[in-house]
Queue: 4 jobs
Job 1
Amino acid sequence: MKSIDEITDLLGKRIVIRCDFNVPLSGDVITDDGRIRAALPTLNKLLDGGAKVTVLAHLGRPKGEVNPKYSLAPVAKRLGELLGRPVALAADVIGPSAHETVAALADGQIALCENVRYEPDEESKDDAARAALAAKYAEFGDVFVTDGFGVVHRKQASVYDIAKLLPSFAGYLVQKEVDVLKALTVDPKRPFVVVLGGAKVADKLAVIDNLLKIADTLVVGGGMAYTFLKAQGIEVGNSILDADNIETCKGYLESARAAGKTILLPVDVRIAPGMDFDARQVIGDVSVVAVDAIPADQGGMDIGPATEKLFAGAIEQAATVFWNGPMGVFEIPAFAQGTKAIAQALTQVNGLSVVGGGDSAAACRQLGFSDDQFGHISTGGGASLEYLEGKDLPGLAVLEGN
């Protein structure tokens, strides 16, 4: 991949950049601007060099229709505050407003087109339809920069197809993400500990397959842990269970033993009779039990205090740690402690600690941790997992061939 440092004569150059500004909103208020902040080094480099910058980005899933709920207006406002310069927001993506807004840019100025996912062909499976849309995006610039790591695993018009039409470069964010992921997959410093959480084993099958070959220890928490426990013959009450993958988990446990690897599972859990997810309230009382003592009518909602110590001990002695997926229903205070303990342990790592984006990154910030307490917080949970699965990511592959 060519770096933006290789772009010659930025002054007056028209640059189209793909960013990932898919930020969480409460109404029209951004509740976590981490992805916007992550784009600042690249944007400042281009703007300070006098380029005319047009940003393509998405928010949510408007499914090819204009929906004010998914407007990038809050993003334009916050980006302008962080850059310390105005960000012109076009009222459309490739229509008259976008063309007028881009044409009006002076050297060192920036414009943001509306949500690219308002365009039906942005995510089309039809190669020709995507290519036609990408050609319209390409009219806005002489050079393309990709800096939205959270979408590089998608073959979309503003990610993949436009890079085939213009000289293309990787922004600083994408370069950093790839460098970190290479450090995890190519001769990582050991001990190498991988921490996986989240709800379903099925979501992580391929990454478990690949990382069991590389990691020394696999720490499994969150909802997916109950399928592993069931694979050991432990009854898990009404805890979340991926019944289709019990035998798969049994195979992982056997493979790990045969290879001299360790899979750490919870030894105790916080349980409750139920949850009201909409109201974010626990139904009934919260208690802590050993994993083999979960009542039939209750379910595990978070790892317990003994498990927190067990998991933290494995993490803190590691030289390299990758974490993806919370340990419990962290959005509810009663079940946030396990995830908080994992985050705290990562801050104590004397080596490379990587938070793999998605819910894990959101949890860290919600629980009061700052980004600089970790070695790296990825901006792309899905992209980082697919990279760790060993997949080719279209948005990166197209840069390498450009």
Note: The first helix runs from residue 34 to 48.
Job 2
Amino acid sequence: MAETFITLAIHTYDYAVALRDRLVASGIEVQLENVDISNPSPAPGVRVRIPESSLPKALRIVEADAAQGASQVLERLEGLHDRILVPVDFSDSSINAVKTAFAFAHALKLKPEIMHVFATPYFDGSLSLTDNFTLDIRDTEVRKNLLDAAHDEMSRFRKKILALIGDGTLPPVKFSTTVREGLPEDVILDYTRSTPPQLVVMCTRSVKKKATQIMGSVTAEVLDACRVPVFTIPEDYNFHGFASLFPSVFFCNVDQHDLLAMDLFIRLFKSVPATIFLIPVNEKAGSKLNGRMNALRKYFADRYSGYDFICEIPSSKDLRALMHNLIEDHKINMLVVPNKKKNIFARLINPGIAHKVIFEADAPMLALPV
């Protein structure tokens, strides 16, 4: 059956040619078509047409910085580093994060990077010259002691992981460890920018504990600014394979970002046929919400065989009530959230849905950057 071509954009001739070149360099077939088909010469309006199956990838390229070269765009979008980052604090919940990360690594042929971040205490420098000199020496000694202790803990943690691999609890995948100094959220985000992994796996506290630690949640800070997928699991969650994460809920913005996020989601779980509930959270969707959601469901169903997509319009706009109803009524095991990039001021005034969900639900969550 011939591939169906759809119109990605309509631009001036020069811009359409430039966009075609970027798409072709990324492996996408492109057809250019004049808006005025009766005029064979280059027209002011030119349709850029692509195969329907290439739409999610093409949308990412269109949204990427036009000044970047094709190889840079692909690196930004595909995550060329075959890593899974797993921040740990050596607690029992860290072992849960490791178990989950190793399952992903085994299925996706990736390498886990186990990271621990320690912070040195801050000292007030408003002392005399002599006192400052003494303080610098003490500060250096404290930092060295903390660094040595962190490396010792990581060594013990590594042995624990090797023992779990040895008894068959963990799959036999190669992994590495690293110890770094700084604020955990800053170090994690710096790593994802300089060495973008395919996935970050983090453990979160229970909802009751989160309520008292909203301002200090490392996971929430990472979610707000991370531009790679982040998978979070509650501290007392026992991971039993990918199938145990379904049925799941996919929160829809009811715009093109849903196509990007769903494509990322399916690539992570491409071998797991399952039920996915589509729930709109965009209050600006308007009166045609039902029609738009059904069109989105049909697009997903046609493109991703083996998955059962179900649209559901929530009766309540209260997030906590919505989370409770979804998890209880449909036995939901995972929440999937398209995570839009926001500047720091927007995040303070109106936090993203991923930030809100993490404090309202005790369930695994996958935040996907769009």
Note: Residues 65-80, 123-135, 209-216 have pLDDT under 50 and may be disordered.
Job 3
Amino acid sequence: MKNKLILLGWAVLAWFGASKSCVAANESVNRDVLKKEKLWSPGGYIERQSELGALRFGKSFTMAYGGCGLIALYNALVALGQEPSYDDFLGLATDLQCRGVAWFGKYGIHPSALRRWLKKHDYSVKRLGVTEESFAQNEENYKVFIVTVLNGTGLRNWVHTVCITRVEAGFVVHNGPYEEAFCTLAEAIKNSSRQGATAIYAMGVSKQ
């Protein structure tokens, strides 16, 4: 019930998004930044959200603050075999700020907006249960997961959305606090926050 209430409240906040003029101004600024600075290798994973503080996001925030959902989607596309460019990243940012950003960007992007984007662009997406049993049942069915977690045991640290990939060594959390692979999907999800994370929304993603 707590998860449903969090997601419902978050969905309400998503009604208060960024204006078209704000999104356009952000794209112009961000394009200039990415012309001058190489913040990550285009086509490679974004592993350090904290390094994106020069990129605007929402009304008055930065991607270092509220861009984890965007980064998770970008990383999922990388894992699915694309080599997205900076232009592709900016296009994703524009799409998601227009449809899914919550409370002018303060509370990031609702995970349902990521799911809608993927389905619209012809990816196969399955929403998973958020129990260890569900993770165990599905961890071999997908190589790419997008998971939104609650940091710690309360709302004080809000939420974080990550891309998790299945590799030969286990499960790797991208844009998470640890670099090693974990043995199970459930273990990877738990370690997507230093405070110990609990999943509130999860999906498996694949190409159609």
Note: The chain has a mean pLDDT of 88.
Job 4
Amino acid sequence: MPVTDTELGANLSKYLLLAMTEDIFITQHGKLVAKLTNPFQNKLETAKSLFGILPQTMTLESAKEERVNEI
């Protein structure tokens, strides 16, 4: 479920409860910035859910650099 950072801040308790059963994708200015998930979720399933978020041509270093430049 996608939610803006503003909405998350205003209704944190609601989203913490929802995170027990589904992933919450947090956006800021229209970009995905974080994922709120159940800490007891299967780690393999978590890794699979993240697959494909970054372009195949992007390296970890370029992703970090892009994120730092946005701030």
Note: The radius of gyration is 14 Å.
